[in-house]
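thread from #wetlab-drylab

HS: before we spend reagent money on co-crystallization trials with adenosine-5'-triphosphate, can we at least see a predicted complex? here's what I'd submit
DV: go for it
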Amino acid sequence: MTFSNDPVLDISGASVGQSGQTILENVTFSIDKGEFVYLIGRTGSGKSTLLRTLYAELPPHGGTLNAVGYDLSNLKRKEVPRLRRKLGIVFQDFQLFEDRSVAENLIFVMKATGWSDKSKMKGRVAEVLMNVGLPNSGQKMPHQLSGGEQQRVGIARALINFPNILIADEPTGNLDPYFSEEIYEVFKDINNKGTAVLMATHDHHIIKRHPARVLQCEDGRLLDSVKEKVTYGLD
Ligand SMILES: Nc1ncnc2c1ncn2[C@@H]1O[C@H](COP(=O)(O)OP(=O)(O)OP(=O)(O)O)[C@@H](O)[C@H]1O
């Protein structure tokens, strides 16, 4: 159960890794409702591993991990879809179905997550497309959209079930700088309305232009700019 003032992510003494290898140890941080936090670190430092653990694609190797009210160390398989309704995921490569329209991409996720009322689905599709600044694109096919617009659809999809936090793994990694800025603005707009954001990025220009709390993966540890100096690429 999540109470209104509980952090959306509350991680203490956690180890994360994959294929039996631990990548980050003693990871401790929490993210409150409505916070905006960057996750940085060199290639291979463990950003994706941490994010994939948070959305239950990888099991934690130890510690206490609470994500949107779910205990990730004891998560039952049937709870994973419920966790992912409260925690929206945005990918670097958009991961849209190329043979379905924008609206159909969104409706696919809605049906898979328990929506059935057609008029409610239509209403929610219009709402999330409005939230990401694509009010008239429901009938378009992904290939008719720019990369930046396709990522907006990816964000709209992550918003469908009113998540408490958006977790984004290098959402601007496939975009040129103009679209990167635009996508940042979409995240910030959503964040200003109360949804927390945890964004992994290599884009130090964005962090410099829009400073916020930074978590940094370095040498198997996670540094937190609230408590210590983070350095990688920011000086
Ligand atoms: N499937 C896998 N099995 C075992 N080790 C892996 C696997 N995928 C990645 N790794 C290792 O885990 C470590 C962390 O990788 P991860 O992808 O989390 O880093 P990252 O910080 O997200 O990097 P990038 O910025 O390139 O996305 C790396 O040393 C990598 O080689």
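DV: The helical segments are 47-54, 80-86, 102-112, 118-131, 147-159, 177-192, 204-209.
HS: ok that's useful, forwarding to the group
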